[in-house]
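Hi,

Apologies if this is the wrong queue. I'm a grad student, and the batch job for Non-homologous end joining protein Ku from Rhizobium oryzicola produced an output file that my downstream script rejects. I'm not sure whether the problem is my script or the file. Here is the sequence I used:
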Amino acid sequence: MVAPRANWKGYLTVGDLSCAVALYTAASTADRVSFHIINRRTGHRVHRQMVDSDTGRPVENDDIVKGYEIGNGEYVVLDPDEVKAAVPEADKTLDLETFIPCGEVDTLFLDRPYYLAPTDKHAAEVFELIRRGLKDSNTAAIARTVLFRRLRTLLIRPHDEGLIASTLNYDYEVRSSDEVFADIPEFKIQGEMLDLAKHIIGTKKGRFEPEEFHDRYEEALAELIKAKIEGRKIRKAPPPKETKVASLLDALRLSAGVGGDGGKAPPKTKSRSAASKSKSRVAAKSTRSTTATKKAS
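Support response: The file is valid. Your script probably expects a header line. Output copied below for reference.
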C-alpha cells in the first residue's frame, strides 16, 4: 500500500506545546471519470494554447504575467517575483489561537477538509494530548497558516484517532443570503398541510450513511464508456412518471400515502392524559346508562 502524500508539513502548537504534523487531502476528485479534448476528424488530442487577444499570436510561458484591470483595457502588471514577495511568509506553524464549541461555525464557511496527523512517534504523544483535550471538551480550535501561497484560516476538530483541519472561507467570500431570499413571498402554512409535511418528514427520518449515496452521473459515464469499448448500445433510462395533482394539499396527501381528494391526514396520536380523559368519559356514560336502565325497571 502506497503511503499517502502530505500536502503540507509543519508544527501544531498551543502555548508551549508543539509537535510535528502533516496535512493530507481528505476529499479528492481524482477518481472521477476524466476526459481529453479530441479532434473529431483526426482522433488526435487537442491542446490549449495561450494567445494574444489582439494579435492572435501564441504567447510563451516566460512572457505571461498577472494583471489587474483598472480601466477599459488598462492593467497593473504584477511580476511573479513581486507577487511572491507580497504574500505572507510561510512559517510552517499551525498555532491554535482560539477555542470554540464544536458546531459553532456555520457550514457556509467550510471550504476543504484535510486530515491532520503527527509525522513521527516523537510527535504522537503531544498530538494525542491536544486531540484528547479537544475531544473531551467537545471543542474545536481556530488556527492560521500559509497554504498554497495564501494565508488560510483553519477549523481543527477531533476525528477518530486524529484531527480534521478544514480551511475556512473568509467573510468577504461568503455572499449574504439577503439578496437571494428577499423576494420569497410569505405564506401561512398551518392545519392539515403542516401536519402532513411533518408526517412525511417523520416517516423519512434516518442517519447520514455516506456509503449509501452513489454518484449516478459517474456510474452512468463509466457504463457508457464500457459499452462503447464492448460495442454495446446503452438504453436510455425512462423519464420519471409525472403525477398530476390539483393542489399542494393533494400532493402532500399523495406523498403521505393518505389518498388525494377527500383523503384525511394521518391520525394524531393522543397523549396519555387525553386518552385517560376519553376513557373516563366512556366509563361515566356507561354508568349513567346502567343507572337509567335500573330506574326504568
